[in-house]
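Provenance

Sequences were taken from public entries as deposited. Structures were produced by running a predictor on each sequence independently, with no templates supplied. The record for TRC40/GET3/ArsA family transport-energizing ATPase from Haloarcula rubripromontorii is shown for reference.
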Amino acid sequence: MSELDVEAVDDIDAPAGIDAAEYVLYGGKGGVGKTTCAAATALASARDATATLVVSTDPAHSLSDTLDADIPATPTRIREDIPLYAAEIDPEAAVGEGPLGVDEDALGGVGELLGGDGMFGGGAGGAAGAGQAEDPIGGEDGLLGGSMPGADEAAALRLLLDYVDDDRFDRVVIDTAPTGHTLRLLELPETMDSMVGKILQLRERFSGMMDNLTGMFGGDDNEVDAEAGIEDLRELSDRIEHLRSILQDPRKTDFRIVMVPEELSVVESERLLAQLDEFNIPVSTVVVNRVMQDPSEVLGEDVDIAGPNHADCEFCARRWQVQQDALARSQDMFRGHDVRRVPLFAEEVRGERLLSVVAACLD
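Predicted structure for TRC40/GET3/ArsA family transport-energizing ATPase:
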């Protein structure tokens, strides 16, 4: 970045604080700039002494790069001058601890006896592994049947449950995983209820066998373990339901859809809006990112930041025409929502200077 660019960006009035709900989530198709928006919002939020946590649940970690800071897997303060905290959830590490916080052997060995691959069927995807016998209760999708979300998603959810009620933070900004993963997380309460029901059904069906095994080996540790495992699942289901109630409360949550001005992204965003509506998740803002428009037009003030040259650059002019068509459709499609534009910058958005510009666009 040139000295001129740095000075010009510094002249922009960076938002000090934001008018937003307690929980701000950025979601959308992968690669549209959710991390950039989340980082910019968190920075602006923390500037007025609001203790703010920004969390990335996307396995492709880019929050560290965007904020130009080393961000661990647990909430850590990354700025001394403002109360900004950050965490990049590491799904693989969390899965190693048990994706749902429940040990797979907590069911008295029933899972190992019948599931072949533990209580989660065929592994992270929830499908039966190659050569796995069909489950007598759940069908070919493993011991518990149904579509168990991926272990990485479950792990991300388990950690998020700890953060939403953390008294250290006044606001939590979440950079969600791509669209389908986020929505499957919201289906977990029903999945967990189904899991508990099937476990109880299994225990009843095989209670005689388990009683015989208990008598053969002495003691009733398996029975105690099974009860503890079921209680863990019920407790987790309650906590997930609590999270969903927060996400559905417009006084507490603002889910912001991020898209780029392209036909496929508009269609994907329309689908996401419809799905969020099915879950009663409030959406107030739609962010159109990487718009090939002069930054001064987007910000509503004169700024000396390089923008596209539609007069002399044929490529820029043609891309702008394509984007204008997508923008017109998005404006019509998302009528009733606050549609914000963020320009496409010549430089990579990394560090506080350009994040301040993004925050100004979102303000």
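DSSP finds 14 helices and eight strands in the chain.
The domain at 23-96+147-187+236-289 is CATH 3.40.50.300 (Rossmann fold).
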